Each structure stands twice: as C-alpha cells, then as structure tokens.
Amino acid sequence: SYMKDDNVSQETKNLISSLPSDKDFMGYSLYNYKGCWYYPNTLQAVLDVQEHFQPRKKDIILASLPKGGTTWLKSIVFAVLHREKYRENPQTHPLLSQNPHDLVPFLEIELYAGSQTPDLTKFPSPMIFSTHMHLNTLLEATTKSSSSSSPCKIVYVCRGIKDTFVSAWHYRNKLHRTEMDQASFELMFDAYCRGVHLYGPYWEHILSYWKGSLEDKEHVLFMKYEEIIEDPRLQVKRLGEFLNCPFTKEEEESGSVEEIVNLCSLRNLSSLEINKNGTIRVGVDTNVFFRKGEVGDWKNHLTPQIAKTIDEIVESRLRGSGLIF
Ligand code: A3P
C-alpha cells in the first residue's frame, strides 16, 4: 500500500506533479523529492514527519537503507540503552518476546504513515525511533530548518551495495511469497544501478550520513554492517560510548558486552517464537527480516561482470568522499 497514493493530500499532489518522476522495476511511479526517491504515500508520510515530528534531546534516531542492517541495529541499540533495566531478570528482556521493529518504530513507515499525527509524549524518554530518510531530510524534520545541527543522537548503519541489493531481492520474494523470474531480477538490478528505488540512490543516502558524521561527530554515528559482523563486541562498546552510556570496567569483566552480542545475534533472534511465527504492528511477518546475515552472499547471485558494473558506479559516486566500500 505504501506504493499507492490513497493517503496523499491535495497539497502533496500538487507538489508531486512538479517533481521529477520515474518508474520502479515493477512499473510503480517514484518521485524525487530533495534527491531521494519516494512512492506517493511514503512522501506524504515524510512530509508529515517534517511538519510534526519533534524528538526530545535524549531520544535516539536509527537510520538505514532498507536491508542495510536495520533490524540488527534496532536490537543492539535497544539492548545497549536498556541494559541496566533487565540485568537482574534477563528472561524478561523485551527482545525475547517482541520483534525489534515493534520496539523501535519507524517514523514514516509506522508512526506517521496513513496521515497519522501520533502523540509521541506517550513514549517514555529516551525513546528510540527509526527512519529510512536521507540525513538532510531528517535534519529538516528534527530542526525544522536546514542549517542547524541535530537536537538528538542519530545512528546510521549501512552495508555494501551488492549484499544490500541481494537482500532486498530476497525480501521482496519472501514478502510476496513468490520467486521472481530472471527478467525482473535484471530489471530490479538495473533500477538499483540507476539509483531509482525507494529511498535511493544508495550512494546519496550513505553520503548524506557519511558527511553528517564527519561534520557532527557528537550527534551522528556512521556504522557498517560488515564492521559489526567482523567485531561485534567492539561496535557494541562504540555504541555505548556514543550514546553516553559507556560500558564500565565491571560490566566488561562480567560479560555484559557479550550478553548483548549474543542476545542480538541472528541465530538467537531468529530462533525465538516471536520472530518465527509473529507479525509486527505494520502487518509484516517477523520472519522476513531474518535470513543469512552474511557478508558476500552476493557472490551466489551476481556474476563477476554484473558485480563489476555496480562496484564501478558506487566507486565513482563515492570518489573524494573518503568513504570506501
Ligand atoms: P540477508 O538478507 O543478507 O541475510 P534489514 O534489517 O535492514 O531489513 O536488513 C535485513 C538483513 O539483515 C538480512 O540480510 C538479515 O538476514 C540481516 N539481519 C537481520 N537480523 C540480523 C541480526 N540480528 N544479525 C545480523 N544480521 C541480521
């Protein structure tokens, strides 16, 4: 339904008619608003976030591209932030009975979707929210202008484009319970290479957060999925420091970091009943968020030639930024 335009106001329709447009690989219209591609309903929600959303100073916003490691980041940040609360009774930890997406709601996909204007004061502070918006658009929302720095902490996670794409492909198949044919695989790949996909282009997305993290280290943390895979303990500690709740020596010695790593591991989360047979509030089956969780799975799906094509595109777009993938 997010591809449709049934929640779009007349004002937004007028705006949309002035925006550059293109079609996604299935033929649905996408519109480019401030450098990012949206379906009409998504754009309406983003505009509503811009108008109404006001984070509190201690709130935390998690950002990512779809399939960039969102679910993992949500679970880790939740576990780091609330570790003290569940230390005595770890069996009551919310991550054991709820999917990370229900603990950390999306702004534009859940809270402000369908033209809702939610009352966010009902959430205890600090609250963790999430978004797929570009940093520039997010900052316009949270600061209500385009020049101020973020009023709260933002954590971004990204992942190599080839694994992100392959993960997105599997996600679509699972969601629609069909295996799409080779022709649509190629169409989707082509659209990805052109940057014409929801929240794309990939490189604009990651560059917005990369630059933001260099300009405002205190508020924007840039993380890579691959780095969390490589050394999850280190990244969990890094998060603790960034969020102003560093792990104490005692905590480290008592295994608190490892506990979080294990709790949030793909193996553990995907084995829980809630994540095997549950459904999140927005109506998606929980199991679609968990698959292999590996680095380099693209090798099983992309030919070396196709991989080279997409690598060259990303390389040329990131050149000079200091960001390497
Ligand atoms: P794969 O499809 O490559 O397996 P998102 O959370 O942004 O939707 O991204 C989904 C990807 O993250 C999937 O990748 C999924 O398997 C992986 N993932 C989900 N939970 C994870 C976890 N706890 N640890 C590591 N990877 C995880």
TrEMBL record:
InterPro entries, per database record: P-loop_NTPase (IPR027417), Sulfotransferase_dom (IPR000863)
Pfam families in the record: Sulfotransfer_1 (PF00685)
Keywords: Transferase
Enzyme Commission (EC) number: 2.8.2.-
Superkingdom classification of source: Eukaryota
Domain (Sulfotransferase): residue spans on this chain: 58-322
PANTHER family to which the protein is assigned, alphabetical: SULFOTRANSFERASE SULT (PTHR11783)
Family membership noted in the UniProt record: Belongs to the sulfotransferase 1 family.
Protein name per Swiss-Prot or TrEMBL: Sulfotransferase
